[in-house]
Specification:
By secondary structure, the chain is of the alpha+beta class. The protein folds into three domains: 2-92; 98-210 and 386-452, Sandwich (Immunoglobulin-like), CATH 2.60.40; 226-335, no CATH class. Helices cover 30% and strands 25% of the residues. It is built from twelve helices and 26 strands. The protein has helices at residues 2-5, 15-46, 64-92, 205-212, 219-223, 269-277, 317-325, 365-373, 395-398, 411-423, 435-446, 449-452; strands at residues 102-109, 112-117, 151-154, 156-160, 165-171, 176-180, 185-189, 195-199, 214-217, 226-229, 234-237, 243-248, 252-253, 259-261, 266-267, 282-287, 294-296, 300-301, 307-309, 330-335, 342-344, 348-349, 355-357, 378-383, 388-391, 403-409. It is extended and about 85 Å long. Bound molecules: copper (II) ion. The site of copper (II) ion (CU) has 6 residues, from loops.
Length: 454
């Protein structure tokens, strides 16, 4: 049943108990589904109009229905008392001692996870709403002695493995939901409330990547090369109605020479209105190509021989316009492999021993081309950031903007990370300047591969 449900690997101590409960619930639902559906089908045939032209107002006299309903109720009570409540109780009542745990504050906001560590003194520094700004999203008061060694990060939570983690969860604006799928942990973050939760990770992120490692064939990506036609520039007359499938190839100017729309703008309802208001009756445009999930497998040059479009470049509408301006009518493209959120689990070299892809290196399309050229058709990959923090309220465009990363490390790696974070605090002696800390942590979040795809 676990495999059938497609649950991600478990990486926390209590995860197996949660999965066990999920499996039991699904068995109950499956039995009920089969039972009720068969009874429904039976009733359709048994009590059809042909055999029972007159309705019977008394109904069944059999006791079996009551026994069945009671049996289901008993099963549900057993599920609650024997499974749900104990699992819940352990999460809520049996908190580990703070001295034996990694304690961290997580404050959600639209659209980020702010992570706050108390530092070596184990005490969270004072925070104040008045101090909140873009460099200090938690409003930490660096003048407070307890705050001097506090570490703040955005969208990046590092924790050590095999040690309890206590999260004090809250939110600055709306209700968010702190979801760690691999930990089987989910809790709403509510403004004005500090909700404690705890879990104990049992696997490092690297170990989870090992369990998720799988082979991928590279040749199919390269073989899907096809020729597409590049739309040509045309004069489009504006008649008041939207032409969503057209994009401007030249700026549109009114009589006075003011630019109303720029090349690349779509001829949607709003833009057509603006053109009509400025009494522009015709523009230079082309049909949109919708090739942004493809990349070019050839290079295009202009008349002077300058490269206009590179091999391996993604065919955004902007790139298509560049290609169009060379006068080309056909272009060879292939779909993007979309593997750039994956890393290689081994290193790959060509025949002369030159490194093409290092271990833990990202698998982007240019590298796939090189690997296939070198005769390497199969590689082992794993997701680069399997352990994410998702907002289960699906805020921020289906959670993509509200995405944090959790890195579970060995105790040595974690203390090295802490030391590194603390050393970046050192220069902040007299003038309290939190920007240096925040720059560090924002770098972490902006360099992740997912962000590249936005
Ligand atoms: Cu949210």
């Amino acid at each position: 049943m676990e495999q059938f449900l497609g649950l991600p690997p478990i990486a926390s101590e209590h995860g197996a108990a949660v999965d066990h409960l999920i499996v039991l619930l699904h068995w109950l639902m499956l039995i009920l589904f089969i039972g009720w559906t068969s009874f429904f089908l039976y009733a359709l045939v048994r009590f059809r109009k042909g055999s029972h032209p007159v309705a019977n107002y008394l109904g069944t006299k059999s006791k079996i229905v009551i026994y069945l309903a009671l049996a289901i109720a008993v099963f549900e009570v057993v599920l609650d008392v024997a499974y749900s409540v104990p699992v819940w109780d352990k999460r809520i009542e049996e908190f580990p001692a703070e001295k034996d745990a990694t304690v961290v504050r997580v404050i959600a906001e639209q659209f980020a996870w702010n992570i706050h560590y108390p530092g070596p003194d184990g005490i969270f520094g004072k925070t104040s709403v008045d101090l909140i700004d873009s460099d200090n999203p938690l409003g930490l008061d660096r003048n407070d002695p307890a705050a001097k060694d506090d570490i703040m990060t955005i969208n990046q939570m590092n924790i050590p493995v095999n040690k309890p983690v206590i999260v004090r969860l809250s939110s600055k604006d709306v209700i968010h939901s702190f979801n760690l799928p691999y930990m089987r942990l989910k809790q709403d973050a509510i403004p004005g409330m500090m909700i404690p939760l705890w879990f104990q990770p049992t696997k490092t992120t690297a170990e989870i990547q090992q369990t998720l490692a799988h082979k991928v064939q590279l040749k199919p990506f390269v073989e899907k090369t096809k020729s597409v036609s590049i739309p040509s520039e045309q004069t489009v007359s504006i008649n008041g109605s939207a032409m969503d499938e057209f994009v401007l190839t030249q700026d549109a100017m009114d009589n006075t020479g003011t630019t109303i729309l720029s090349a690349g703008d779509l001829l949607n309802d709003e833009n057509v209105k603006r053109l009509t208001e400025s009494q522009i009756t015709s523009v230079k445009a082309r049909e949109i190509a919708l090739l942004d999930k493809f990349l070019s497998t050839q290079e295009l040059k202009d008349k002077e021989g300058n490269a206009v479009l590179m091999k391996g470049e993604m065919m955004t509408e902007e790139a298509v316009t560049r290609a169009m301006k060379t006068g080309a009518t056909q272009l060879s493209v292939r779909p993007s492999s979309k593997l750039d959120t994956y890393i290689a689990m081994e290193e790959y070299k060509d025949n002369s021993g030159n490194l093409i892809l290092e271990k833990n290196g990202f698998v982007d399309d240019a590298i796939i081309d090189k690997l296939v050229e070198a005769g390497i058709y199969e590689i082992i990959i794993a997701p680069s950031t399997p352990t994410e923090i998702a907002c289960a309220q699906l805020c921020g465009l289906g959670y993509y903007r509200m995405r944090g990363y959790m890195t579970i490390q060995t105790p040595e790696e974690f203390s090295a990370w802490l030391t590194e974070q603390l050393s970046s605090l050192q220069p902040v002696e007299e003038p309290i300047d939190s920007t240096s800390i925040m720059t560090d942590s924002t770098t972490i979040s902006t360099e992740t591969p997912q962000e590249k795809n936005q």
